[in-house]
Design a protein that fits this description.
The structure is a single chain. The protein is of the alpha+beta class. It has three domains: 117 residues, Butyryl-Coa Dehydrogenase, subunit A, domain 1; 106 residues, Butyryl-CoA Dehydrogenase, subunit A, domain 2; 154 residues, Butyryl-CoA Dehydrogenase, subunit A, domain 3 (Up-down Bundle). It is built from eleven helices and ten strands. Helix 9 packs antiparallel against helix 10. Bound molecules: flavin-adenine dinucleotide. The site of flavin-adenine dinucleotide has 19 residues, from strand 1 and strand 3.
Length: 404
């Protein structure tokens, strides 16, 4: 049960959220998706509407103006948004997560200053770990936080950060003990208007402009002691936990994109005639769609399984389930988006369809919130752990037999 809501209330609040999200997609996201992509525009212009419809407050407590819904509602929302535009889904959920983080760990000043305006989409937020020199190995980050009178001074650079081209408030991770690794990393609330914050003057990085990915520098940026949102020893563990959840919704977004592509290709196959018959009438053609339908269903099941574990707070099992869901779903999207695009012939490449945008987004999905290789390592540790346990049990029972 989320925030004391009865199951029936929860289901109806979630259904209402998804209905509003559908309207947002139909009226605001889809009509201009290709134009956004052509112009290299971020999602900033959409954030107020997303806020007005409550899409930025899914998991935020109702006492702070949010919906108080569980993680799985956010997963369903992102799946729906990404079917139209992966970058918009990422922009909305990343701003949402900043609100959630501030609501959970911020001081009263952070909450009153930022939360209401982030919730309405008047302001946007981002979370910054990645640096030009450190991506997968985030604990090797070089951005430094030095204690000064009354607070901290931050110096360093961040790159490839979702929403960074427009974010007003940034949660920035920095090293407080040079060489201290994960244990020395703390999280700070950074105000983009303050002296010492320098946003790179460039359009969004990468092939999915709506994600608003950008870079910034901190040069002698001064903040108060209370702006340390999470202390060393806590910050890195906490963000890894959040990233774990993020893997589930990135996997769900891949499902949303493939679902949309499958529907488009299937509809196209009803009308398009070749050699005197519809495309569906050609066995070789329709098997391609059948393969996509199988893998899509499998990916959706992995996502739903991981979602339930996150909702239940079963962090250990959720870690592995989330990693499996993301590896499977991103690979599924890379393979089937290309196949479905091909199934529509030249028409699949048309700007009116999202397939080329989705294909680029699937590539981005393999990197954000844990690259495929990092997740394979997590899954491999689990596989080995199970073998170690089984071998340990065998040795133990063999020993017991000998002793008898
Ligand atoms: C559009 C976009 C938005 C992003 N948004 C954010 C954001 O909001 N916040 C944020 O902090 N970061 C963000 N990122 C950064 C993302 O988290 C990194 O891209 C990711 O962590 C990988 O880091 P890297 O790109 O530096 O690759 P690297 O770490 O340089 O790795 C390069 C390649 O080598 C592989 N590799 C690395 N180490 C190993 C190993 N030990 N064994 C095998 N293979 C290995 C990687 O998987 C990858 O394929 C975003 C990235 C993109 C593309």
């Amino acid at each position: 049960m989320a925030e004391g809501l009865a199951d029936a209330d929860l289901a109806s609040a979630e259904a209402a959220l998804l209905k509003r999200a559908r309207t947002f997609v139909d009226e605001h996201v889809e009509p201009k998706a290709s134009e956004r992509s052509r112009q290299g525009a971020s999602s900033q212009a959409l954030m107020r509407e997303a806020g007005r419809l409550g899409l930025i407050g899914v998991q935020i407590p109702r006492s702070l103006g949010g919906l108080g819904l569980p993680f799985s509602s956010k997963v369903k929302l992102t799946r729906l948004l990404a079917a139209a535009d992966f970058g918009v889904a990422m922009a909305v959920v990343n701003s949402h997560n900043v609100v959630e983080h501030l609501a959970r760990m911020g001081c009263s000043d952070h909450i009153s200053r930022w939360v209401p305006r982030l919730l309405t989409g008047e302001m946007t937020g981002c979370t910054a770990l990645t640096e030009p020199q450190a991506g997968s190995d985030a604990a090797a980050m070089l951005t430094q936080a030095q204690a000064v009178d009354g607070g901290w001074r931050l110096d360093g650079a961040k790159s490839w950060i979702t929403n960074a081209v427009h974010a007003d408030v940034l949660i920035v991770y920095a090293q407080t003990q040079p060489g201290g690794g994960a244990a020395g990393i703390a999280a700070f609330v950074v105000d983009a208007q303050a002296t010492g914050f320098e946003r790179a003057a460039q359009p969004p990085q990468g092939p999915v402009s709506s994600i608003g990915s950008g870079s910034f520098k901190l040069a002698q940026y001064q903040c108060d002691g209370q702006d340390m949102l999470a202390a060393p020893g806590v910050a890195f563990k906490d963000i890894l936990n959040s990233i774990n959840g993020a893997r589930v919704y990135v996997a769900a977004m891949c499902c949303g994109m493939v679902d949309r592509a499958l529907a488009l290709a299937s509809e196209y196959g009803v009308f398009r005639q070749t050699f005197g018959a519809s495309l569906h009438a050609h066995q070789g053609w329709r098997w391609r769609l059948a393969d996509a339908a199988i893998d899509l269903e499998a990916a959706n099941l992995l996502v739903d399984h991981a979602s339930v574990l996150v909702d239940d707070g079963d962090h250990l099992r959720a870690q592995v389930a989330a990693a499996k869901a993301k590896v499977f779903a991103t690979r599924m999207a890379q393979r089937h988006l290309a196949e479905l695009l091909h199934a529509m012939g030249a028409q699949g490449l048309s700007e009116q369809h999202p397939l080329t945008r989705h294909l680029a987004a699937a590539q981005v999905a393999t990197l954000v919130d844990g690259s495929t290789e990092m997740l394979l390592e997590r899954i491999a540790r689990d596989v080995q752990g199970q073998a170690d346990t089984a071998v340990g049990l065998t040795i133990h029972s063999t020993q017991q037999t000998k002793d008898q």
